[in-house]
Structures are given as structure tokens and as C-alpha cells.
# Entry
Amino acid sequence: MMDKEDLRDVLNWDRCKECGECLINCRYMDFSKQEAIEEIKKINRGDVVSSKVIKRCISCYACDAFCPNDAHPYERIVYNWDYRYKIKGLPIRASYLMPTRRPNFRQDLPYSSKEKALHRKWASETPPAKVVLYPGCNLLSMPLLAQGEIFDKLPVWGSWDKCCGEMYFRMGLLDPVAKIAEKLTKFYKGKDIEEMVFVCPAGYNMFTNVLPEQFGAKFPFKTTFFTDWFLNEWEKGTFEIKNRLHESVVMHDSCHGRILGDDFMNRQRSLLERLGLTIHETSQNRTHGLCCGVAAGCNKYSVLDLLLNGMKQLWTLDRAKGDEVAIYCTGCLLTLSCLRLLNPFGKRLVHTLEYARNALGESVPRGNQTKALWVLLGITRYALPTYFSSQRFYVNSEQ
Ligand code: SF4
Ligand code: SF4
# Structure
């Protein structure tokens, strides 16, 4: 991790005017201007005892997008959680959510022989091409999404142990993120890759911004989001659209999409429109949209917080116009699919990858609901029985 002074520069620590704008816009806490100002002052001086935000924030990341001074209010919050973690560690119920602990809710799901074969193929020692797709743990959980013509041209390269550390960052566990930055820097050094394409905005933001800027990681390749890569290849004539789509969809934005900005979120819509879809929006959307719920478990490591906050967004999406929900983040797809099982009569959840493959004339196996069922069963088996345990632990991200 960078030393404190460098970090203060990167995160623009001195630019905070304590205006409260970030917290007034928070969709999860209802602050007046005066309360927001008092809260940001508490966060800035590390008052973990009386700050409501440090206790109740659901880690949605949106306040960074609300700050007019680029003063990183979100990092001010999670860096306070880091202090809490260093003193107290984590409750044992969090263990099942940790990507580098075993068992965990992605790696230890049942996988078919076809899925295991894809995992093995993607974990090759050397990169299969100069332009590769980083799967991230969410695509590794639903590997059948990444087959067909697109992935003949964009081979997947990665495995569980190349975790980008996003969950640790969102929980404010900064030493584990720093170790991951170091490990990934060492692994990718000298590898013959020109471009790494990401299908998950979380991994894309971690490799492009968070790991290099806040944790000193260095990667010898350009990073590109899948939508941009696909649009570019389509324009070059690499792909021919055989099946123009006709569905009407409501957009769900990812937390990292909000941070990556309006242009990024517009490009996700633009690809779907060019494929033929009609786009609808929820009443509060884009930067002001709601999280899929996964981040809501990051403060108190509580599955209940995750379910309640995720349900709020699922209800919002189901009430909006559009026959299906369009999702461009594999993490949001997996989380909302878990919630869909609890509320099965709403809209179908479809990833951009599926729409792109459909437009190329392919039918895509829909494994997300089955995977979601296994995630819920795993939580019931491994996390819930430890819910009230006082046992605590520290993360070893090198595992
Ligand atoms: S972080 Fe930004 S928006 Fe929040 S109080 Fe500071 S300057 Fe204002
Ligand atoms: S991260 Fe989200 S929930 Fe937390 S204070 Fe910022 S906007 Fe509110």
C-alpha cells in the first residue's frame, strides 16, 4: 500500500470542503444539509464511535460520484472500516463471503464437468493470446456464459487465485487489498499480453484505477471494458449481427458503473440499443440508482442487509417499464438472481453478454438461477449457523 502522504494526495484528502453534498445525495440515509456536514466532519476525523455513516453505510460507492471536488468520500468511509478491522478482525460469519477463504460462496459451488473443463482451460500457465478476457470470480461462477464466437476471438485467461480484491476493498480490508496488488503485479510482470478485457465493471475499475492508484499495482497491459471491445470489433467487421433483438429492457447500473461515469453508463446502453433493444430507466437511475445489494453486506457482513437492500432494487426494476432487466455486471447478475429466487414472478434478468451472443445467432445456456440457488444453500449451510458466534478472524489474502 502507498504511504499515508501519497495516499492523501491520490485521494485528494485536502480538497474536502465539508459541504455535505456527498451525503445529502445518499439514497440509503436521509440526511439534512446540517446533518450531512456534521457527519462528514466525523468521518474526516475518524470518529468511528458516533458517526452514523460509518455504522450504517451500505458501501454503495455512489458518494464518490456525488462529490464535486473529487475528494473521495467513499474511501474516507472505508478507510475508517479498515481501522475497525485492524482492531477487531471480522466475525466468523463473514468467512463464507471472502474470496480467498475456503469454503466460499463462489468457488465452492457445484460445477458440472463442462464448467470444470472451462476453468481448467482458462487457468493455463501462459496467456492464450495478446488480447484476453479476465473472468473475475463472478464469470468463473457462471462460466457457460463465456463460450461461442466472441470467446473464440477473445480467449478467457484467469483463475480463482487472480482475485482482484474488490470485495476486500468494499469492506475496507486494506492490507489484504495491498497484498493482492503486490501478488497480481508480480504475476502479470513480463506476461505477453497487450490488452485485458473485463466483463465485470468491478474488476475493470480495480485493475484500471483502484489497484494502481491507491495500492501501487503496475500492469503491463491496457484495460478495456467488454462493451467497448465488442463495439470496436463490430465496427471493424469482426462480428456480423444475424439476429436483431426486439425486447424492451430496464437498465440496472453497477456501483462501479456509477464511478466510471456517465460516458461509461451511456456506452452500455448504446450497445444494447444498437443490437435492437428498447431501453427504459427506473425513476432514479444512473448515479442515483440503487445497488444490487451485494455491497450492503460489506459493512456488517450481514446477509440480511444484503437481502433487504437488494430486494429494494429488484422491486424498483420490476415496477419500471420494460419486459426484462438488462445487466452489464456479472456480480449484479449473480446477486439479483439470488433475490429473484425469493421473488420469482418478476422480470427475467439478462446480461449484456447474453444479448450480444443472441444477436450473433447463438442461444445461451441460462445457468444463473441454478447458481443462485446453490449460493443461497451455501449461505444457509455455512454462514447462517455462525451468525451469532463471537469467534473472529483476519484475512490471509495470499491463500
Ligand atoms: S467529500 Fe466532497 S461532497 Fe463530501 S463534504 Fe467533502 S467536498 Fe463535499
Ligand atoms: S457509500 Fe453509498 S450508502 Fe455509503 S454513504 Fe456513500 S452513498 Fe451512502
Summary: The chain is about 50% helix and 10% strand. The CA atoms of residues 164 and 203 lie 6 Å apart. Strands lie at 90-91, 131-134, 195-198, 222-225, 248-252, 278-280, 324-327, 348-351, 392-393.
